[in-house]
Amino acid sequence: MAKAKSLITVDEIVGAWAIMPTPAKPGSDDWRSEDTLDLDEAERAIEGLIKGGVNGILALGTLGECATLTWDEKYKFMATLVEVTAGRVPVFVGTTALNTRETVRQTRIASDLGADGTMLGVPMWCAPSVATAVQYFKDIAEACPDMGICVYDNKEAFKFDFPTNFWAQVASIPQVVTSKYSSMDRLLQDINASHQQIRFLPIDAAYYGAARMHPEFCTAFWTNSAVCGPNAVTRFRDVIKAAKESNDWAEANNMAGEIGHALAPLFPNGSFKEFSIYNIALEKARMNAAGWMNAGPTRPPYHILPDAYLEGAQESGRRAAALHKKYSSLKSPAAAE
């Protein structure tokens, strides 16, 4: 039975949005495994993120292993996420599929469960044209009118550049309220083209730069570091807010450097393209090394990771854990947004 809910708005997309993995039981890196979900760990991590002060949760994207879960597992995880959050923070779940009809089916089920929105890429079997991508989002919005849409801007995963003329067109769709965004070199251009109808979320390490470029509109970011311990990123959110009011950006700049330093070893040879080949295994190795949550093993076929890259991911996790510990006892300079 679908619950009555209003469409989330751009103005409600603020602060630190944690993107989380789908915790896996031991042995889940074997294709013979069934029912791989560690729902107890999922519940603990969700509760920890909320108590840690995050403003929203994104799930079932790339590092959420949306492509390697069975439908039964995906359903159970979505249901758990919605039940545990209990409306305390907005929840967007990934429902990207290889075609429009399956995406509609999954998105409607997520809506019925009570999710606030979907984190949606584009079907990646064929590289889509701009017209194809725009129509895909229009169709999902028509079919699921009460679901907010977070456009999942990942060029490597979806074989699509998400150009400025794409943003100009999907900005007219009321459900498209935000984006997990990667094109920082085009940020101002895309904000202008979308008439500030889409809240672009840079990764935490890039949020300082975004906030300096457009302080009024850039009020939110996504973070994979929160599941290594949320203290640093929630403080960073508040430090940025205080800097906008005081125009003293020194601490914000320093924290941006710290977060970027912690993230850097995650990328083999500094390459996002190389990182994208091993994204899931790298991210889960980082989280497990940080120790704040147990993400568990990576589900096949993406569980293969060169040893040379593993140490970088683990070092990134250790650095993130150190930041979480560093900021555990410091008071926020401003109230959370």
Layout of secondary structure:
Elements: E1 15-20, H1 39-51, E2 56-59, H2 71-85, E3 91-94, H3 100-113, E4 117-120, H4 130-143, E5 148-152, H5 155-158, H6 164-170, E6 176-180, H7 187-193, E7 199-201, H8 204-213, E8 220-223, H9 231-246, H10 250-263, H11 272-277, H12 279-290, H13 307-326
Parallel strand pairs: 1-2, 1-8, 2-3, 3-4, 4-5, 5-6, 6-7
Helix pairs in contact: 1-2, 3-4, 4-6, 6-7, 8-10, 9-10, 10-13, 12-13
Characterization of the model:
- The chain is α/β, with parallel strands linked by helices.
- It has a single domain, classed as TIM Barrel.
- 45% of the residues lie in helices and 10% in strands.
- The chain is built from 13 helices and eight strands.
- It has an eight-stranded parallel beta sheet.
- Helix 3 packs parallel to helix 4.
- It is globular and about 45 Å long.
CATH topology title: TIM Barrel
User: What's the domain count?
Assistant: 1
- The CATH class label is Alpha Beta
Radius of gyration: 19 Å
Instruction: Work out the strand percent.
Output: 5-15%
Shape by Cα distribution: globular
Proportion of helical residues = 40-55%
Query: Describe the biggest sheet?
Result: 8 strands, parallel
Q: Which stretches of 5+ consecutive residues score pLDDT under 50?
A: none
Mean pLDDT comes to 95
The number of helical runs is: 13
What's the total count of β strands? 8
CATH superfamily: Aldolase class I
End-to-end C-alpha gap? 32 Å
Strand line-up in the sheet with most strands: 7-6-5-4-3-2-1-8
Sequence of secondary-structure elements: EHEHEHEHEHHEHEHEHHHHH
Query: In CATH terms, what is the architecture?
Result: Alpha-Beta Barrel
Structural class: alpha/beta
